[in-house]
Amino acid sequence: MLFLLIIGLVLFQASQYQIISMLLVIAACLPIYYRYERKQINIKELVLIAILTALAVLGRFLFYMIPAVTPMTAIIIISGICLGAEVGFLVGSLSAITSNMLFGQGPWTPFQMFSWGLIGLVAGLPWMQTILKKSYLFLVLYGIAAGFFFSFFMDLWTVFSIDRFFSWQRYLALLLSAAPYTISYCFSNAFFSCLLFRSIQTKLQRILIKYDIK
Q1: Percent of the chain clearing pLDDT 70 (strictly above)
Q2: DSSP letters along 40-92, please?
Q3: First and final CA of the chain: distance in angstroms?
Q4: How far apart are CA 46 and CA 36, in angstroms?
Q5: Dist CA 50 CA 46 (whole Å)
Q6: Could you read off the pLDDT of 47-75 as tens digits, one per residue?
């Protein structure tokens, strides 16, 4: 990552933070895909990942008319909790690029892939799985934290896309102007996580046992 940063600064000059940051985000996504490809691929698991990705995309599509309200992030979180960090990252990143086929691809797509993927990955870490399964309170708190992380991270992209360099003044202005949407998104994550968790978890457990998916 450091090598890529140095190359980006040399090739694109220090002012081209948009290009450099995009390269860094893409590079950050590659190791998890490479690691997953190196595993013994289970076609049943791939189908399950595809179904969860389609479900997340459908959730984003069905609620697109309501600003900052979507069950997509909740489905990504639940995928990570139930199936582990790698699957959580894959569902998150694939949901971003797939849903953007409907909502529009652009330079922001790698940022969305990384941020949604990271939300699923963290939810799937063994110690996080244990915490999030304990009670709905932890699930609510993680949903809210995921909402703030996604909004704050994507506002970084917005600053780079407008100014081509990072500006604290611009960043804080964006955070303040987006506050109502960010708060709505956070509580949307918490609500849908609690609403969908038990039903999806039960169905996934049955599928894992029935089709012997490890």
Answers
A1: 80
A2: ---HHHHHHHHHHHHHHHHHHHHTTTSTT--SHHHHHHHHHHHH-HHHHHHHH
A3: 32
A4: 11
A5: 6
A6: 898 899 999 999 999 998 888 899 999 99
Query: ∠ CA 147-61-76 to the nearest 5 degrees?
Result: 40
User: Treating both helix axes as pointing N-terminal to C-terminal, what angle do 85-103 and 72-83 enclose, rounded to 10 degrees?
Assistant: 160
- Looking at the chain, list the stretches that DSSP marks H as alpha helix, in order from N- to C-terminal side: 2-12, 17-38, 43-62, 72-83, 85-103, 109-123, 126-134, 136-163, 168-177, 179-210
Least confident of 5-19, 21-35, 138-152, 176-190: 5-19
3-state secondary structure of 150: helix
Cβ–Cβ < 8 Å for 95, 60: yes
Stretch 101-114: mean pLDDT, rounded?
82
Q: How far apart are CA 201 and CA 62, in angstroms?
A: 22
pLDDT for the residue numbered 14: 46
Angle at 105 between CA 92 and CA 15, to 5 degrees: 100
pLDDT at 108: 79
Q: What is the mean pLDDT of residues 125-141?
A: 94
Choosing among 3.40.50.2300, 3.30.160.100, 1.10.1760.20, 3.40.50.300, the CATH entry for 42-210 is: 1.10.1760.20
